[in-house]
Description:
The protein starts with a helix and ends in a 6-residue tail after the last helix. It is built from five helices and no strands. Helices cover about 65% and strands about 0% of the residues. The protein is mostly helical.
Amino acid sequence: xxxxxxKDFLAQDRDGRKSDTLNGLTxxxxxVLAHLADGASNVEIGGTLSISPKTVAxxxxxxxxxxxxxxxxxxxxxxxxxGIIEP
Length: 87
């Protein structure tokens, strides 16, 4: 099922319906995105990056707003599509 979802999401990119880049994200937001996509919790990410879990949550909110994503699952699919993590 997950493979079908990823395949569908990748097809959307080829059709041009989603044409975002990492350019709008800060370096810290890109770090947080990579950890989120790997499945780390806000507490785990905060510990790794020496920031509070609330700061991680704020970064996640900013990432989702900038990339027009609406769930953590969409963040993961985005990260796969952009090569931030492996499927």
